[in-house]
Structures are given as structure tokens and as C-alpha cells.
Amino acid sequence: MVNIYLVRHGKTMFNTIGRAQGWSDTPLTAAGEMGVTELGLGFKAKGIKFDRAYSSDSGRTIQTMGFILANSENEGIPYRFDKRIREWCFGSFDGGYDGELFDGVLPRIFAENGSLEEGFPDDEKVANAIYAVDTAGWAETWEQLSGRILEGFTDIAKESEAADANNIVIVSHGMTIGSFVKLIRPELPRPHGLDNGSVTHLTYENGKFSVGKVGDMSYRELGNKILTK
């Protein structure tokens, strides 16, 4: 069985000022670096040794992984990037303010087509709405987006199982992690608002994922206690 520690990257410049990052990228802030340093120290304090590491090919996930591996004493393990576990692509809205897209453009689209509803609309509806209004032609349909997310994480898990890995760490993105959890466990509520540096616990065995605690901040909290002693 493969134990998977699925991490949302550390806090970035765009996270801090409320901009939709998507496939665009900004570096971790000083607070973001501190947060994933805490995470690495928390892993170390728990004695977790990783056999393999994976991240998207975005700079913010690569930077996050560096802090995790260095501070958990897991440097030197096999590590590769996989572009399939990137964040959602927001097309021409990449880099725009979150409020403009999620509180402005999308509700107007849903209202126009009669699908406006209370609470968060499902991922398929959101993805296809972004695709419909993207003027750059970069955004993905839900079929494309969900397909590459599921394929990417599944291939990582299969590769790790074949290598007899017990513990792996993956750094990905908030909306991508939320979508993946919903895809593998559709009966669960779709996770929203995952904190930077949070951990979602999964296992993989014989072709099946199981979901444990989602958005776990206990490793960061433990690391913070170590730093502030």
C-alpha cells in the first residue's frame, strides 16, 4: 500500500493579493516559505521518510518541495515533475482577480443560462463556463481537465506501487486537489479553501484510492511549535 501525502503548495504572491494563478506562476512569499518550512519540520518530527516525491511543473510547487525535502531530511530521493497535476488553467482570466472571475463573470454566465444556484456550483459547470468565455483559447473543458488530473495522479500512484514505495509526497494545487478528491470519492463533499501547506492523506492499493483526512494542518502546527520554542 502506498501512503500519499498530497500537499497544497506554499502561499504565493498571487495567493496573498487574491489573484487567480492557474497556469501562471508567482513565487512563495516569506510567509509562504515559513509555512512549508514548518511543514517539513512537522514531517521530520513525525519520523516520516519519503521514498519518492512528485510535483507539478509549476515553480511554486517545485519551490515548495525544496523546502519540504530539506526540512524533513528527505533530500536526495527520486523526484520528478508531472504537468498533468498542474492547477486548473483559467485561460485569459489567469492572473486576474479571484473576485472578478468567481464573483463576477461566472455568476453572470450561470444566470444567463439559467443555472445559477445557491452555494458552489460543481466543477464541471465551472470548468465549462470558463472554457466558454476564455478569449485566449487556453482553458480546458471539464473532460480535458478531469481526465488529465485523474490520469496524472493515478499514474504517479501506480509508478510508486510498482517501485514498492511506502510513503510518497506530492505537491499540487488547491483546486486540482479538490477536484481529484471529488473524482475518486464522488460521494464526499468537494473540498474548498484548502490552506497553503495543508496535507490531504490518501492511500493507493490494487488500483484503488482511499481518502483520509483532507486539508490536515497538524504537520504545520507541529513545525510551528518547533520553530517558536
Automatic annotation (TrEMBL):
It comes from the Bacteria. The active site is at H9 (tele-phosphohistidine intermediate), E87 (proton donor/acceptor). InterPro entries: His_Pase_superF_clade-1 (IPR013078), His_PPase_superfam (IPR029033), PGM_Phosphatase (IPR050275). Substrate binds at R8, H9, G10, K11, T12, M13, F14, N15, R60. GO terms for molecular function: phosphatase activity. It holds the Pfam family His_Phos_1. GO terms for cellular component: cytoplasm. PANTHER family: BROAD-SPECIFICITY PHOSPHATASE YOR283W-RELATED, PHOSPHOGLYCERATE MUTASE 2 PARALOG. This is Histidine phosphatase family protein.
